[in-house]
Design goal:
about 130 residues, mainly beta, 4-stranded antiparallel β-sheet, globular
Length: about 130
């Protein structure tokens, strides 16, 4: 059974940085795709980024490409989402998700590809 726990959210100013962490409890972490989604107020949950077990060739939504960096440390079963140059429109609850897969697929941007979810961490970007 897989359990995920996010941490690292908070209240920051525009232009600041935050690093979110996703702690994975379970086995065979390296066989899971780890993804980050976010849910902004009044909006549906949306894809932010994903990385396969190798850590190579991550995927990003256009809105965060060049500002956010996803990574993972398989030895300690953690994924990170480094968020730089934060904007007010990045304000959301950020969720970590995991699904078995050795590489990213077109479906990797969809919530339905991930049976395992954390409870989320709030990120607020405000002046």
């Amino acid at each position: 059974q897989v359990q995920l726990k996010e941490s690292g959210g908070g209240l920051v100013h525009p232009g600041d940085s935050l690093r979110l962490s996703c702690d994975f409890e379970g086995s065979a972490f390296s066989t899971y795709i780890i993804a980050w989604f976010r849910q902004r107020p009044g909006k549906e949950r949306e894809f932010v980024s994903a990385v396969a077990g190798s850590g190579r060739d991550p995927q990003y939504v256009d809105a965060v490409n060049g500002r956010f960096t996803i990574s993972r440390e398989n030895s300690v079963k953690i994924s990170y989402l480094q968020m730089d140059s934060l904007k007010p429109e990045d304000t959301a609850v950020y969720f970590c998700a995991a699904g078995v897969g050795y590489r990213l697929y077109p479906n990797s941007i969809r919530t339905g590809a991930y049976p395992n979810w954390g409870h989320g961490t709030q990120v607020t970007v405000s002046s």
